[in-house]
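Suppose a colleague, Dr. K., hands you the sequence of a protein chain of 335 amino acids and asks what its three-dimensional shape might be. Before reaching for any lab equipment, you can write down a predicted structure in token form. Begin with the sequence itself:
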Amino acid sequence: MLRHIVFRFLLAFLSIETILQETTKYRRRRRLRAMQNSLGFGGAYGATLERIKAQGEERARLGMAVLMWISHSRRPLQVDEICCALGIRIGSKDLDYDNIPGISTLLTCCQGLATIDKGTSTIRLIHFTLQEHLRTHPHLFDKSESTMAETCLTFLNFQHVKDLSSCPLPDRRGTPFLEYSSLYWGTHMRAESSTRATKFALQHLDQFDSHISAKFLWESIKKEFADRELIWRGTSTPEGFSTLHCISYLGSAQAANTLLEANQWDVNQRDGAGISPLAWAASRGHEEVVELLLQQKDIQPDQHGTSDGRTALSWAAGNGHEGVVRLFLGRHCLN
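The predicted structure, expressed as tokens, is then:
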């Protein structure tokens, strides 16, 4: 009952705000008739999005960028994370702190479609139906996933980020976007890549072994194992977790192809958890990367992990990745 009341209140609020933005009685009556003929939230959201786009160029860009990040991020973003992300100029050499917008500016540019969850200090959409509306109108955001990947990689390539030490891990207040960009740049790039994202990724991977993001990614992997109650005998540092392990885990086929063409990797090398690049790609269901690795002449597809004794095929089957399993079976048939 309460949810229904909130739903109706929000619809009324958005409708009134939209109507009051019109400048004459005639335009307000026309807007009201149009909204009466539309389907509830769809019409209210559409009108509000039009209002966002009608702001000044920079405010319109910022308002739509906020909605893009909220609706496409892989986890809820903290206030300081989204502010930092929107202050990054893609391709720049370092972060200009004067370019980071304030949260009040972001909320104003969104015209009421975004709000702050005070309990978690995260930014979210005003209502779950807005997420559904944005999902059914993908044309609203041009190249969202590749843009987010490029933003994350630009941040990781900043000189002040590359200079950070991982012992101890830095205070996130000084680098609020570090954790998100370290963990999810590959996810965004896998969803939608671009030539520029691949270029930035290779720049980052060229120094991955000494980059602080390697520690963040390794800690996330350890947590994933713990959450799934799997046997873990890895180390507390990313020992042996090479650039090829990283890209196999994250699943970027474009970057993996470039790395493998360089022909400088031991494709069967195990990391500190005793897992090979092929096993990581197979366990995560990254079919394109698995296919690339299986094409390497020195690959040992039946190699057993040193900590659990499982093969890459076992990982793929156990995690339900049918496409990867078919790639292994097809290779065995050819042999």
